[in-house]
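Quick one:
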Amino acid sequence: MRFSTDSRRFAAGLIVLALAAWMTPATADPFIVREMAIVRHAANASQARDEALAEAPLEALNLMLQRLLPKKQVATLKLRPDAARTAMDRIAVMSETAVGESYSARLTVTFSRERVIRMLAARGIVPVAGTAPPVLVIPVLVEGEVPRLWADARNWHEALTANMPKDAIAPAKLPDNGFGDRSAPVQHVLSGDHMTMEMFRLRYRAQGVVLAAAAPVAGRDRVALRLYGTDAVGDIEMNTEVVGTFDDAARVVFETLSERWKSDGARDNQAGERDVVITGAVASLPGPDEALAGSAKPR
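Output:
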């Protein structure tokens, strides 16, 4: 019996996944805010330091809650400094500088999981249960009406790498653009072919694969962005136009994955419902069939 190349790759991927399962890294703790930058000015550096360390718990609590809750939910919370101090376990000064009337530092603030959950429960809020399994994000750069992958999408890949958040509630991985990636048929990758996506998912030990297609809008400081595939929540199909550069578009990619995970968790916790597909307002990038035809032109 003869097996196709895709079938052999699929079988090999399953073996690699089984052998490497014990190596899967632990997920980041969303209740720890690491390397938070803080700057304060006062009559002197000593006073500025005291103010910075007094205000840091509330600042860190807001950053931490933005990981656990949808943005709209965080905006409704009116938390006081005493609530932040109660929820906090410890604060560590990683580095600091005091000059004249200024003080700046990088802090790591650790919160108690139990106290944070109790604090939110008192307000009728149940946070997402935990960190999402990682998702592979494949960069697709659309230039000159042609979608490009791997080394040909270097600028977009670099922007995603530079803007990938640390300790994300919905962690992502990026391809290494190695031989295994480049050997996949381009048309199969761009179309989201099931077998090809499964091979990438297994190779990178990811929950799903999302293609992030970015196309600079000619003559405008905008990037047409399309996300399609499967993330930790389910199927995703989103088109939007981002004001700014590739860096701004990259941040939208990771924020979208995070918001989907948090919103889905909130629905599960509060209503027992799942609604896994989101769509943006601007259909600015082509579908897979158009990409295959080489006509990936942003409108």
